What does this fold into?
Amino acid sequence: MSAPAKWLIVIGLVFIAVGLLWQFVGRFLPLGRLPGDIYWEKDGVSFFFPITTSIIVSIVLSLLLTLLFRLR
It folds into this structure.
């Protein structure tokens, strides 16, 4: 099996793991419903942009990846 195929499999498994984890963590943490998340609804049209949640997830992932690459 080639290296790119292995990476695609690993990336797919990571996405599956994160999706399953998100289902369980979502019950305990209010990600997606934080103050600062934008939700607008008018005349049957709704718009949702979780900006605060995106910033928090970005910070956590940045810290995790920084720690991961420093330990190598």
Q: What stands out?
A: Strands lie at 38-42, 45-49. The longest strand covers residues 38-42.
